[in-house]
Design brief:
Length: 440
């Protein structure tokens, strides 16, 4: 790929990349402009917007996307971990077609929801009872509500830079956040966690944490950090909620199963609906029974489409027929190998970068220092934007924030193509990548 201004300063290199992107994608630009006439910003999901405008896709096939300008791209976004089955798996399609042929909105329990619930209880060690929602956001809201109701406490502890859904942004104060009383800890700081929980634990309803931060950079929690959280919350009756909306794909029993740590509640979402809208929360029987409508004073839990037949059917087929424990391990092994190769490419060139993550989830960071928690830096954002546009030009689609996710249809050849595109980026942009970014 000929990249004009490849060796210019960072701002000039990015401007040149944007110009080339515009020239290659006139139909996406036109469709974005039309969409902006009826939706603020031209879309209805903030994370899908990026400058100068997002690509509009016409279809997906396996692990590939085709945009409205006719470009075929390898899909390393994977719908932010929800697209683990690819775009047209016949098992998923068959499950949906069978489900809707018998009626779409039935207004009562259906044949699939208890079967999917059984599959989840059997699969994830910490889940004894489970309830369904429409998204990971809803699952986290319900888990937080359950923690507050069961403990009689109101305070919640989260992580600086954390993200738990559309109304639970912890990276920065958001005026649309749910009005919970949050106290924030630095991620991967066991001493800070121990100190806070020993001093104030008896006033805290719960701690919510991802065992690997997903949206904030695929930053794994250390075993020590998770163990401190488990030990100290248990000592004061504070509930530990593991947000596994993204990370449940990283082991047959989720990441809590891999670590051998049993939280009080777990939240799920993304791929577990087979690519359709889905969320779930579950955990200890004594907590989850608070939602039993047969009991006096039961907590209400509404949601017209919580048990929608399409998600229940696709989710069950995906979990039991496709994403089996064996295929889970194989996909995560493929992801570990890809990340090792990306880091080797960086090391060979001596650039201040690294790729963090675990299994089938990875993220590019523009620093050589250890990445233990999220850091905001405008220069990093610009470098990530440049990487994003250059990789698209080379036929690889991933998240603007540097995140790459694997899907089951991917092959070794797909990984090779992504490595080649990444190395071309490293070589052509070497001069603007050489300046290190400090991690606070």
């Amino acid at each position: 790929m000929n990249r004009a201004g490849a060796n210019a300063d960072l701002e000039s290199a990015y401007r040149d990349a944007e110009q080339q992107f515009r020239a290659r994608n006139p139909n996406s630009e036109r469709m974005h402009e039309n969409a902006a006439r009826v939706m603020p910003g031209g879309n209805t999901r903030t994370v899908l917007h990026y400058a100068p405008f997002p690509l509009t896709f016409a279809k997906g096939i396996g692990a590939r996307l085709v945009d409205v300008d006719g470009h075929e791209l390898l899909d390393f976004l994977g719908e932010y971990t929800a697209g683990i089955f690819g775009h047209d798996d016949p098992v998923i399609r068959g499950a949906i077609e069978t489900a809707v042929s018998d009626g779409i909105v039935l207004g009562g329990p259906n044949l699939m929801e208890a079967r999917l619930a059984r599959a989840l209880v059997d699969r994830f060690p910490a889940i004894e009872l489970v309830r369904f929602t429409n998204s990971g956001t809803e699952a986290n809201l319900m888990a937080l509500g359950a923690a507050r109701a069961s403990t009689g406490r109101t305070r919640i502890v989260g992580m600086q830079g954390g993200y738990h859904g559309g109304v639970l942004f912890l990276a920065a104060p958001s005026p649309i956040n749910a009005p919970f009383e949050f106290t924030l800890l630095p991620y991967n700081d066991p001493d800070a966690a121990r100190d806070l929980l020993r001093r104030e634990g008896d006033s805290i309803a719960c701690v919510i944490v991802e065992p690997m931060m997903g949206s904030s950079g695929c930053i794994p929690a250390t075993r020590e950090f998770l163990e401190v959280l488990r030990e100290e919350t248990a000592a004061t009756g504070t509930l530990l909620i593991l947000d596994e909306v993204m990370t449940s794909r990283l082991g047959p029993g989720g990441l809590h199963g891999e670590h051998g740590i049993t939280p009080d509640l777990v939240t799920l979402g993304k791929y577990l609906g087979g690519g359709l809208s889905f969320g779930a929360f579950g955990g200890r029987t004594d907590i989850m029974q608070g939602f039993d409508p047969r009991s006096p004073g039961a907590w209400p839990h509404a949601g017209t489409f919580n048990n929608n037949i399409a998600s229940m059917s696709a989710g069950l087929a995906g979990l039991t027929q496709l994403f089996t424990p064996e295929r889970c391990r194989a996909l995560n092994s493929l992801g570990d190998g890809m990340r090792d190769r990306l880091n080797a490419s960086i090391a060979t060139r001596g650039l201040p970068m690294q790729v963090t993550g675990r299994g089938s989830m990875s993220c590019v960071h523009f620093t050589s220092e250890s990445v233990l928690r999220p850091v905001a830096d405008p220069q990093v954002d610009l470098k990530r934007g440049l990487l994003h546009l250059d990789m698209i030009a080379s036929g690889v689609y991933h998240a603007r924030r540097g995140m790459l996710n694997m899907s089951l249809p991917m092959t070794g050849a797909d990984v090779d193509a992504a490595i080649t595109a990444f190395e071309e980026f490293l070589d052509s942009r070497r001069s603007v990548l050489a300046e290190a970014v400090a991690v606070a």
